[in-house]
Amino acid sequence: MKYDPIKSALGKAFNRSLFLRIFFYRLLDILLLRTWHIKKEIRKWAKDRKGKQLLLDAGSGFGQYSYFLSGINRKEWFLEAVDVKEEQIADCTAFFSRIGRSNVLFETADLIEYSKPDTFDFILSVDVMEHILEDEKVFRNFHDSLTQEGVLLISTPSDQGGSDVHDHEEDASFIEEHVRDGYNITDIREKLKRAGFSRTEARYAYGKPGQLAWRLSMKYPILMLNLSKLFFILLPFYYLVTFPLCLILNWLDVHQDHKSGTGLIVMAYK
Length: 270
Known about the structure:
There is one protein chain. The chain has helices at residues 4-13, 18-31, 33-46, 64-72, 86-98, 135-145, 185-194, 208-227, 231-254, and strands at residues 53-58, 77-83, 104-108, 120-126, 146-157, 199-205, 263-269. Strands 3-2-1-4-5-7-6 form a seven-stranded mixed beta sheet, with helices on both faces. Helix 8 packs antiparallel against helix 9 (231-254). The relative contact order is 0.15. It has one domain (4-269): Rossmann fold. The longest helix is centred in the C-terminal third of the chain and has 24 residues, at 231-254. It is α/β, with parallel strands linked by helices and 270 residues long.
């Protein structure tokens, strides 16, 4: 399943005005369960942060997390956002300039080569590492780029059915752009340790409530849009029915501990 073309089409549809772009961000915040988990961890980290902070959005994509991070403290926090796709960097640069977010800088960069030693207090990497084969090189770059008290926050699929892969050997990733179907929780801890991190905290997300929410809010709509873009007209009616249930399922997933799950939330400390 080609996921990126659908994301690009939706991005273009909502990029016709500043209002629609911000509405799109709000919609992603509500529908995407990983956003609930990520924002929860960011708020915990940011609670006691005072003074100047330099942050990195590593793999910024549409810019929805850059929008959130740059809005927490516009006076003392500065954000660098990098992505390998030049068109997305150009798009985000234009949008953030139009809304007056001067505390954000977007740059085109390959995370395999990107390193700024002892620079960032916080690095965010959301649904990026499953796209990169040379992941340990990137983890080392993240470690080197953090300040001594710096923190790395990662969201990525797990090997417990991440990318909607299940138990059968012939099963393939629902999202073809992934180079791996998901991380083993012990494996990613070991890789981060080899990269130099002193401590990691990893937990499962997308337990049973989250898995159902993802299918309803993301998988089935994407399947429909891959069949025909005409289904875009039907999406508001589809979400009118499924939206309340997705909200309940997302809330349950965030407020439960999961022995297993198709996603991982990882905090790594330098």
